[in-house]
Amino acid sequence: MAVALDVLKVVARKFNFTYDYTEALVGGAAIDATGKALPEETVSVCRANDAILFGSVGGPKWESLPPNEQPERGALLPLRKIFGLYANLRPAICYKELIESSPIKSALIPDGFDLLVLRELTGGIYFGQPKGTTVGADGERAVDTLVYTTREIERITHTAFQAARHRRRHVTLIDKANVLESSLLWRKIFKQLAAQYADVATAFMYVDNAAMQVLRNPAQFDVMLCENMFGDILSDEVAAATGSLGLLPSASLAEGTFGLYEPSGGSAPDIAGRGIANPIAQILSVALMLEHSFGKLDAANALRAAVRKVIASGHRTADIVTPGCIKVNTRQMGEAIAGEV
Ligand code: IPM
Ligand code: MG
After folding, report:
1. Spatial distance between the Cα atoms of 262 and 200, rounded to a whole number of angstroms
2. What is the CATH number of domain 103-242?
């Protein structure tokens, strides 16, 4: 985060804008300081601002807490709900230069790939009611409910088509329409709205097949539109397919311009404090923030271009280093990117 903020400073100077920010505690650090993963104070700070630039939360120290008090569930899920962050964008690029880091054979992805997992984030089985555990004659009974309404599906479907217009104009709806009632509703609404976006091509794919296709031919996808849990699962698979989680940013958007921006990976406690983490995911999260919350597409694109150039010129943090490359630490990677900007 420190490096990403340094890079933001340079982008702001280059593109001639000013900004202000307030730091607030969340996750493990917040638990240590206040006993809560998401203190009220943090929520008020977020409310008073235009966007949330989120670091990574969690680690082994807090893993024995009850699930609802842990950094991830205790902070992320409530933040999504409180701020109505319904659209989760997880762009995944496998850069040509990094194909050898991907577990997928290079013959299957000769040009790498560039896709967007668009995940519905505030509905479905994560939040549906009823939810809970009761005890009866047959022992315990645990219930989760997968529910979606027309309105919830419509708004994320519009997001998908609009995102596709800035990309390769193709949306695949990922569902389980051969089994789930909710998937039938997704298909119905998706087809209705597709008529308004005649310039965007569409496809339908069952989620089990999609899990296989990501390993066989990820380049076929442009925008993958998913309900909440399918998107959770597929986005991890897609991330692994790119070769490094350390490169992937994400945006969680509300209606309007408010959003939360965070790296797709976790806090990597195994390398904490050594200054070797890849800062690119956090830096590209800044790019998403500039684009979606502040309408600064030029600055966002300049940042993305700088990242591409630095990768092309062979700079590599430990997670993606290969023989013959320039091995850099977190700070040096940030400086190289700032230099390109
Ligand atoms: C994610 C995470 C979260 C989720 C967990 C930590 C609750 O896996 O953001 O993908 O399932 O949404
Ligand atoms: Mg996940």
Report:
1. 28
2. 3.40.718.10
